[in-house]
Amino acid sequence: MRNRFFPVLAAGAGLAAIVAFAAIGLAQQPQEGGQQEEVNRADLPPQPFAPQLAALMNLLIQPRHAKLGLAGKAENWILAGYYYNELKRAFDVVSREAPRYKGLPVADLFDAALKQPFQVIDFAIKAGDARQFNESFGKITAGCNACHQTVGNPFIVIKVPEASNFPNQEFNPR
User: Fold this and answer.
1) At what angle do helices 62-73 and 77-97 cross, to 10 degrees?
2) pTM
3) Same structural domain for residues 95 and 143?
4) Which own/partner contact pairs does 44-53 have at CB distance under 8 Å and 24+ positions apart?
5) How many domains does the chain have?
6) What pLDDT digit, counting tens, does each position of 71-113 carry?
7) Comparing C-alpha atoms, which of 66, 60, 82 is closest to residue 163?
């Protein structure tokens, strides 16, 4: 029974493939008048923004990490508090938009690397404690690098900013 059924199934699959290729060929034929209509991408509806994890890290996390470090270095606690909250929110956005990376849950990776040092830096900012800020910011930076190691990207090394990459922003308190 099986031997008689297989040729019929194979013939049916072959016929389906021929019909599919014919339909594709007809769809690619020029429109009436012999000209193929070009699609203007500007006329298409907006497409959803779906960046990869690396793009999200570069767009959202890295600049906020640097700005938090620069604000703390300048002991501008109001600005440091602002960038701390922005960094926390950015991690939430990244974990929501890229929930898994290499099969690992991104939110859990962030939590393991940053939960404890985030609590300490929050306290240091509110207390205006430069020593505690610098220590916890170093642990946040180390947590970032540990996460990169965990996911197999040890070549991505984050460091405490030495100078501002934002020449149009003042980090010193007024």
Assistant:
1) 160
2) 0.73
3) yes
4) 50/97, 51/97, 52/98, 53/94, 53/98, 53/101, 53/106
5) 2
6) 999 999 999 999 999 999 999 999 999 999 999 999 999 999 9
7) 66
